[in-house]
């Protein structure tokens, strides 16, 4: 996922709703990987502009064997990663950030089908309990990026153009 930042739309203008629902994906990104990587990490921000909660129940990508929701925690000085059971609730009027510094919740792309190079885009479908499937394209940032470059990251990459309704 590399275009000029000036050509990239703003996050708010790019966000779209899924199937008339109130769910918006404001950003989606991943990091560059090597050709032998067994996993890649994906990050998104999900906004619920509706009056009812929704739940991210699964995710998938044609560029990975599986996509899992994970939470990283510290237990006794040891970092542990576990699958998130039951999905991720997005409260009404709320914003849930799956990001490196967002409480350790992220998406794990297991078995990438290829290396991801900075500047490319990788498709991802997020499936919600109420909203259904929301397709996004993740921008591939530099291998060590802590956030998308357009948000003051390490100066690499660009914004993701937002979500596109499916169906």
TrEMBL record:
<feature type="region of interest" description="Disordered">
    <location>
        <begin position="145"/>
        <end position="167"/>
    </location>
</feature>
<dbReference type="InterPro" id="IPR036182">
    <property type="entry name" value="PCuAC_sf"/>
</dbReference>
<dbReference type="InterPro" id="IPR058248">
    <property type="entry name" value="Lxx211020-like"/>
</dbReference>
<dbReference type="Pfam" id="PF04314">
    <property type="entry name" value="PCuAC"/>
</dbReference>
<dbReference type="InterPro" id="IPR007410">
    <property type="entry name" value="LpqE-like"/>
</dbReference>
<protein>
    <submittedName>
        <fullName>Copper chaperone PCu(A)C</fullName>
    </submittedName>
</protein>
